[in-house]
């Protein structure tokens, strides 16, 4: 499987996205990451393993604790892949804005009807 597919597969799960959201705030232990979720610590560990294998996080060992940290590199790859789509969407929104700017002002909320 190519690297981008691995990244999107890792991000497909809402729990893994929530874990990344938590890690945006800084390093955390597996136990700390498990607190807001209604799943067990071993389940959180399995989700973290998928994120780690995709390169989205790293784990370091400090005594008996495993601290997790987000890795920006893979997220930058996703951002680069998405850039043309964001540009496309932006141009579509610009065209819509231009059309709305040209449209007659209908602030009185009346509807024209033919009699």
Would you write up a description of this structure?
There is one protein chain. The protein has 115 residues and is α+β, with helices and mostly antiparallel strands. It has five helices and three strands, in the order H-H-E-H-H-E-E-H. Strands 1-3-2 form a three-stranded antiparallel sheet. The protein starts with a helix and ends in a 13-residue tail after the last helix.
Q: Mind sketching the topology for me?
A:
Layout: H1 3-11, H2 14-23, E1 28-29, H3 30-34, H4 41-53, E2 57-62, E3 65-70, H5 72-102
Antiparallel strand pairs: 1-3, 2-3
Cα-to-Cα separation, first versus last residue: 64 Å
CATH superfamily of the domain at 3-73: Winged helix-like DNA-binding domain superfamily/Winged helix DNA-binding domain
The shape, in one word, is elongated
Major sheet details: 3 strands, antiparallel
The unreliable regions are: none
Strand tally, please?
A: 3
Structural class: alpha+beta
């Amino acid at each position: 499987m190519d690297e981008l597919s691995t990244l999107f597969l890792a991000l497909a799960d809402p729990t893994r996205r929530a874990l990344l959201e938590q890690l945006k705030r800084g390093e955390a232990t597996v136990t700390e990451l498990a607190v807001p979720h209604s799943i067990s610590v071993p389940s959180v560990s399995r989700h973290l393993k998928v994120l780690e294998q995709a390169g989205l996080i790293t784990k370091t060992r400090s005594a008996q604790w495993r601290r997790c940290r987000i890795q920006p590199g893979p997220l930058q790859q996703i951002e680069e892949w998405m850039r043309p789509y964001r540009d496309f969407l932006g141009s579509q929104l610009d065209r819509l804005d231009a059309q709305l700017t040209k449209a007659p002002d209908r602030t009185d909320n009346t509807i024209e009807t033919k009699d």
